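The following block was generated as part of the benchmark described in Methods. Ligand: adenosine-5'-triphosphate.
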Amino acid sequence: MSSERRIPTGIAGLDRVIEGGVRDNTTLLVVGSSGTGKSTFAMQYLNYGLEHGENGLYISMEEPPEQIMREAKMLGFNLDEYYGKELFFFHSKGRDFVKLVDEQLPALVEANKNYAVKTRVIIDPLTPLIWAVQDKQEQREIITKLFYTLKQLGPVLITTEEHSTPGETVGEDVLIPIYMSDGAVHLTYRPIGGAFNRALEIIKMRATRHGEEVYPYIFVRGVGVVVRTTPLVSAEDVRKYDDIFDKAIRTAADLGANEKMLDRLVYVKENWSYPFSPKETLQIFFESQGLNDALTKEDLVRRKEATLSSEVPLDVSDISGVTMNVDNIELDDVSSSDDEGLIEIDNLSELEEFVQ
Ligand SMILES: Nc1ncnc2c1ncn2[C@@H]1O[C@H](COP(=O)(O)OP(=O)(O)OP(=O)(O)O)[C@@H](O)[C@H]1O
Ligand SMILES: [Mg+2]
C-alpha cells in the first residue's frame, strides 16, 4: 500500500477499496445520470470533513446556499451549525464561467492559501459549466484551470451529470472532466429489481490500487450512500504470500539478478495486496527480465571457475551469493509439484551435487 496519507471520503464502503481514501490536493469526479445519488455522495463527503474538524467550501453553479442546505437536510445532513463558520458557499450567479475560473476562484484560493485548516471543496454539479462551454478545446482549458486552482485548497469532489446513450460505457459529455481528474467513480441506476439496481464502479484513481468490481450501493437515511464492498485484502491475508516472495528473491539472486531488481522484488512483496498467489505474476516478471533460463549447469560451472581463478579475494556480497545458492537448491524445496516454487530448473540433482 502507498505510504502517502489518505483522506477518508466518508462514503461508507468506498474508502476500503481505494487504499483508505483520496490523496490530498487531488480531484475526485462523481459521474452519474440524474437521480443516481451524486448530491447525496457530495453531501456525505462534505459532512464527514466538517465532523472531523475540516472546513468545507461549496461552489454552486446553480442553486443558492439556502436551497442546498434545505436539500441536505432532506438527505439527513444538518449543516446549519457549520454555516458561516466552517462551511462556506461560493454561489456563482450567472453564466460567466470564464470569469469565475480565471479571476474569482484564484482570488479566493489565494486568500485562503495559508490557512492551516484543511478545506474540502465541492462542486455539485459541474454540468452548467460543461454545457456553457461547448468548444472542446476551451472546455479542456477551463476545466484544467479550475481543477488546478481548487486542488490547492485540499481534496476536491466534483459531480457531473452524464447522458450516455445505450452501448456507451460513460457518456461522451463527461470524457474531458474524467480525463482531467485524478479519480473518477461512476454511479449507475438500472431499475431491474434486486440488489444491483444501483451500482458504483471506480473508473480511475491515480496512484492507487483500487477495487475493480461493480459494487451495489443503497441509500440509508442518516448515513447517505452505503457501498457494499468487501475489503481488498484482509489484515491477516496481507503477509500470506511472504514465503513465496522470499523464495522468489532467493531464486532471483541465484539467477544473477542485480541489486536494483532484488530491491524491486522486496518492494513488490511489501505492496502485494491481491487475494491470490503472486506466483504467476512473478514468473511472468522473471521472464520479462530474462531471468527464467539464465541459470544452466554451464553458467554455474563458468561462474565457479571465474570465482576460483580470480586473484581478487571474494568480497562479502560474493560470499553471501554463494551461501544463497547452497541454501536455495534443495531438491524437495523447488521441485515438488504442489509447492509454490517459482523457477523450474531441470536436473536439480545434478545441480545440487555440483554446488555441494
Ligand atoms: N432514503 C432513501 N431511500 C431510497 N432512495 C433514496 C433515499 N434518499 C435518496 N434516494 C434516491 O436518491 C435519488 C436522488 O439522490 P441525489 O439527489 O443524491 O441524486 P443526484 O444524482 O444528485 O440527482 P440530480 O441529478 O437530480 O442532481 C432520489 O431519486 C431517490 O431515489
Ligand atoms: Mg444532485
